[in-house]
Design a protein that fits this description.
about 210 residues; alpha/beta; 8 strands
Length: about 210
């Protein structure tokens, strides 16, 4: 992996942080990905992407929202998350490359809601929370369907927040990590190792992101 560097950014929601993992070949775009409401940038999928994509000309920007930087345990309201993301955007765009907006779970919702207004080149939605567990009637599909840009959803086959077959048709693409839960953990009985599950994920994202523009 490339040598990462951190950058603190002041936003209207507080101080956020970007961990930059630079491309190891000629950089062609930036993938900015943020965490969910229950964890940080140490999530297995974000770490896997930061390890895999720089060799394909992608600089990965791992984004920590102000509430995480401040050490709080609970994420704020979606509006506040959007405010933090908007405040980070100038720093993400500063390298002068197209920026793919992304995130996992709550971070994926933020990327979807703000992509059009911020001028994102595309959206990567990891573990998009289509609905709260057990409440399919409370759908958040409108956020996903309204990105207005090329969008890839990567979803675990057993994600209680929305299994792949629950997603409505739309312009987005969808890749499945077999047997994966909301954090892309796979049970031992599946026959898949975590490394193999992450290879499925990084392979899908690499193929999609290298096809953009």
């Amino acid at each position: 992996m490339s040598r990462p560097r951190t950058q603190n950014v002041t936003t209207d929601a507080g101080e956020a942080r970007i961990t930059w993992v630079p491309a190891t070949t000629a950089p062609r775009l930036v993938l900015a990905v943020s965490h969910g409401a229950g964890g940080g940038i140490e999530a297995r999928d974000l770490k896997a992407l930061a390890a895999a994509l720089p060799a394909h000309g992608v600089t990965v920007a791992l984004v920590e929202q102000p509430w995480r930087v401040a050490g709080k345990k609970l994420a704020p309201a979606p509006k506040t998350l959007d405010t933090g993301w908007r405040g980070l955007w100038p720093a993400l765009a500063a390298p002068g490359l197209p920026v793919v907006a992304g995130g996992r779970s709550a971070g994926a919702r933020v990327a979807c809601r703000t992509a059009a207004e911020l001028g994102a080149a595309a959206v990567l939605a990891l573990s998009f929370p289509l609905h709260p567990p057990g409440k399919p009637e409370k759908s958040r599909a409108d956020e996903l369907l309204g990105t207005g840009v090329p969008t890839l959803v990567v979803q675990g086959g057993n994600d209680p927040f929305g299994r792949p077959e629950e997603f409505p048709p739309g312009r987005h693409e969808l890749a499945e990590v077999p047997y994966g839960d909301h954090g892309f953990a796979v049970p031992k009985r599946s026959g898949l190792t975590e490394a193999q599950a992450m290879e499925v994920l990084t392979g899908a994202v690499t193929g999609w992101i290298t096809s953009l523009g």
